[in-house]
């Protein structure tokens, strides 16, 4: 069947805007997003107003759960842009952009293709086959743009583990199931230092600002109070999800516990600095796409 291209549509009962920002968090190649509007009780293409690119549209190319399926970001002229490199990280006041790769209660292992031009979202492949988690993930999962876990940099606070060569992961704990490619405004709350086959793979726990409980949670202790058991459930889910495939459980540093918001913000700052060096070619990119 020939590949098809269509705009992703999002149905919602709320309207919200991304905060405007006058500069990227660190690094220079950011597009500033604002006025992200989703029509109330209607279905429409998902678009983001921007300064450099007047309109960004998230489009699917190909059929879901096929090897050629991709989700691309486009500007108004139809030019492709990168969700990893061209969406800004910081929006001000401790708010960050989060790009959804895997909607909650789904199992297809979607991820930004860091080695393909314009880094579209695709389903991960192993030995020529599409990858699925052995069970659904219970939170929205994705990445922080303009971050990178440097595989040449050892973290001496986490067993000297080196970065996993990917953007930083986010686990968004809000109640709504989101769409692949959706850009959410989130505030970080905590972080887990997962060690996956010796590589450091941070999990930033965050909540979307439009969630009903967003105003109640601002740090790790608030998560325990208003989302009891969630941090343990996240840790256990990521610890165990490879076991059904015959692999050992993942481990966690920093006492096997979630650290607080300040530590999470430190991780974001450090990985944004690493990304900035990467796109400036101060660090070899290897097979990573910087387009």
N→C terminal distance: 29 Å
Rough shape?
globular
The radius of gyration computed from the alpha-carbon positions, rounded to a whole number of angstroms, is 18 Å
Continuous helix count: 3
Strand content: 25-35%
In the predicted model, the low-confidence regions spanning at least 5 consecutive residues are 8-54
Number of strands: 23
Task: Provide the succession of SSEs.
Answer: EEEEEEEEEEEEEEEEEEEEEEHHEH
Largest sheet: number of strands, sense, barrel closure:
6 strands, antiparallel
Going by helix content, strand content and strand pairing, the class is mainly beta
Fraction of residues in H or I helices? 10-25%
**Overall residue-averaged pLDDT value:** 86
Write the layout of secondary structure elements.
Blueprint: E1 5-7, E2 9-11, E3 33-34, E4 43-45, E5 47-50, E6 55-61, E7 70-74, E8 80-81, E9 90-92, E10 95-102, E11 106-108, E12 110-112, E13 121-123, E14 125-126, E15 129-130, E16 132-137, E17 140-143, E18 154-155, E19 161-163, E20 169-172, E21 183-196, E22 199-208, H1 220-226, H2 230-240, E23 251-252, H3 261-279
Parallel strand pairs: 19-22, 20-22
Antiparallel strand pairs: 1-6, 2-4, 3-5, 5-6, 6-7, 7-8, 9-10, 10-17, 10-21, 11-16, 12-13, 14-15, 17-20, 18-19, 21-22, 21-23
